[in-house]
Amino acid sequence: MKLPLLSKILVIPLSVVTVISFYSVVVADDSTSTTTTVATSTSTTSAVPTLLSSRKLTLPETGKFTILEIGDSLGIDLEMGMATELANNPKIRLANRSLVSSGLTSPAFYDWPAHLQGFLNQFHPKLVTVFFGANDTHSITVDGVSRPIGSPGWKKAYSDRVQKIDAEANSAGAAVLWIGLPVMFSPIYASMTRVINATVESALAKSTNATYLNTQSVLANSAGKFAFAQKVNGVTQYIRANDGIHINTAGHLVLATYVVKKLNAIYGLPVTPAQPTTISY
Predict the structure, then answer these.
(1) In this structure, are strands 210-213 and 175-179 parallel, antiparallel, or unpaired?
(2) Range of the domain at 163
(3) pTM (predicted TM-score)
């Protein structure tokens, strides 16, 4: 099947300032990082009860097993796929609370740790899936100083926020599945999202409650590169939106199929995708 060429691809909705900030990481490190000491979040997590069996979860005999889904617009993309792929699992309840344009670098717009606590109290989930970062390519201000993405100060601040999400979920008795960002179209933007992925993975490396799920290859082509279209269940179709960031309907199902299979592999949950959707090369 021959697909029509996409017309005028809007690469990424990033400001010039963001791009400049990224290049500042390449040519100059965080100038204050060697003299600034910031307490690590791990020093305060010892008082948080650790789930003894965070890697194994079971469905209740009565009632629902709630999965709280949080994220940005990519999180919404995944939520649509998850609703389809878990449709045959009546024991599963999905609580979708992703918000467009949100993330961890702009708490003035939306403070995820503060809002998460309310969602945990409201839904009492056993699992929290986290899928954001697309809006986190900006600098983070720490003690009045702007820390560009990729600098030690940025990584420290971002890691603290990631660990705070994990700690809040852990204290509420919920495991965390943190889903990494997929491959992106723009080389500059892709580089920044890889910084985010690496920072999250490192921040959660010692967690006994959270699992980081790498998705870089899930929507990629056979060479591991970005592709707008792929052969999905034997039919060539678009899986990514024109902006080179978001995910189309077929891509929703591919990613959700992957995540649902991981719910079984990681946590032992007896779930299977309702409409298994995969890419073939």
Answers:
(1) parallel
(2) 57-280
(3) 0.83
Closest CA to 12 of 53, 73, 70: 73
Question: How many domains would you assign to the chain?
Answer: 1
Which is nearest to 59 in space by CA: 279, 274, 271? 271
> What pLDDT, in 10s, does the model give residues 211-256?
999 999 999 999 999 999 999 999 999 999 999 999 999 999 999 9
Q: Is 85 inside any structural domain?
A: yes
The CATH number for 244's domain is 3.40.50.1110
Assess if residue 91 is contained within a domain. yes
Give domain status of residue 44, yes or no: no
Tell me, what amino acid is at 64?
A: K
- For CA atoms 225, 226, 229, 232, give the dihedral sign: positive
- Does the residue 275 lie in any domain? yes
Backbone angles phi, psi at 91, to 5 degrees: -80, -15
Name residues whose C-beta falls within 8 Å of residue 7's C-beta, 6 or more positions apart in sequence: none
Neighbour order of strands in the sheet with 175-179: 92-96, 65-71, 127-131, 175-179, 210-213
Written as six digits, the tokens of 261 are 């299979």
